[in-house]
Write a structure and sequence with these properties.
This protein is of the alpha+beta class. Strands 1, 2, 3, 4, 5, 6, 7, 8 and 9 form a nine-stranded mixed beta sheet that branches. A hairpin with a 4-residue loop joins strand 2 and strand 3. The relative contact order is 0.17.
């Protein structure tokens, strides 16, 4: 039986932000950005809400009909990231989310620094599945619905995996390591991954940062 997917709108903001918070509270990158567990419980939801607002305004959020999984996508045109101009977006996010925490800004600058330039692509910023539903193929259904379109339109796709487990799962969907991994200062490793249109894939993906 297929997974019913719809495009989220402004009325889904709280649902998506809450889903992402639940899915990523214990993610290695979230733990690095907010190393104190008690502080993470209060600040992490604000970061997920900020990400939700950005993608609602600039991209697209797909959500399963039952609200248990979502994927945040941005369409990146050819030539994006080529001019080297500094983006003040990470600083604005830090100011809104956790002004005293430089890692909120740093994670945005570091991932922007490894983002590929030149070719148009779909950027999977985040994909999240609530913990109790992980392993059911919901994440796979969300990502494959976009990969099918990428294959039809000859578009590549890009993401940053936030754990070795998620990296292996993305490899099964046709993504390969792009350049070298990103080692966060005194923190975990992230893997920039690229997928050419038409790359072979197998299924079963659960929620991780991207």
């Amino acid at each position: 039986m297929g997974v019913a997917i719809r495009t989220a709108g402004a009325g889904d903001r709280e649902l998506v932000a809450r889903l992402l918070d639940e899915a990523f509270q214990d993610d290695p990158v979230s733990g690095w950005v907010f190393p104190g567990e008690e502080h993470r419980r209060t600040a992490h939801p604000r970061l997920m809400a900020a990400f939700t607002d950005i993608v609602l305004a600039e991209g697209r959020i797909d959500v399963t009909e039952d609200g248990s999984a979502c994927a945040l996508w941005l369409s990146v045109p050819a030539g994006e990231h080529e001019d080297g101009a500094e983006d003040d977006g990470p600083a604005r996010v830090r100011e809104a989310v956790d002004p005293e925490n430089e890692r909120v800004e740093l994670i945005g600058r570091l991932t922007a620094g490894i983002h590929p330039a030149g070719r148009a692509h779909e950027y999977l910023w985040m994909i999240g599945v609530v913990p109790q539903r992980q392993g059911e193929g919901l994440g796979t259904a969300l990502i494959e619905s976009v990969l099918d379109r990428c294959d039809r339109e000859g578009l590549s796709a890009y993401l940053e995996a936030s754990s070795d487990r998620s990296r292996r799962l993305y490899e099964r969907l046709g993504f390969t390591l792009l350049d070298r991994p990103l080692d966060l200062p005194d923190g975990p490793r992230m893997w920039p991954m690229w997928r050419e249109p038409g790359a072979s894939r197998v299924t079963n993906l659960s929620g991780q940062y991207s």
